[in-house]
Structures are given as C-alpha cells and as structure tokens.
Amino acid sequence: MAHTKQLGSTKLGRESESKRLGIKRQQDQRVNAGEILLRQRGTQYLPGNNVKRAGDDTLYASVSGKVQYKRVKKTKFDGRQRYATKVSVKAL
To answer: Which whole-number Å values give the CA distances from 69 to 4, 39, 88, 90, in the listed order?
Structure first.
C-alpha cells in the first residue's frame, strides 16, 4: 500500500526567498534623501533625527547627510529597560 497519494503533493518547493535584511549604510557614510539605511523585522533599531520608519520597519533617510549610530537605553511600557541602537542622519 502506498504511503503517499499517487498524484498528490510534492515534497519540493518549500524554501522561501531570503529577505535581505540588515544594515545597508555604515557609520559616517554619505546618503541621499530616500535611501534605505537598514531593513529589519521589528524595531531593534530606532529612527532618530532625519530618519523615517516605513510600514515594514525599514529605516530610510529623509534628508541627505551622514549616517550616525548611537546606543540608547529605552524604557518599555512596563518600566523595564532595554538597549537599542538609534539611527540618525546628520544633514550636511
């Protein structure tokens, strides 16, 4: 007796494409307005000055300038604290 259907589902085709997440522009690198600084899921990195957050949590520059990363302490709604990196663009 067969363990799978004769013309049923295939065992192939389950792997999804990688999403290419991560940092796209480094510290002190020059960027133009609208350039993507990093792609992420969730808010591990926070938007700072002259940086906007898209609907999928991607951070992008709102002005031309140099990228700055700064480690900050963020207080959660329940009073606990966590460290996060704030991404800013210093206008030239």
So the answer is: 54, 15, 6, 11
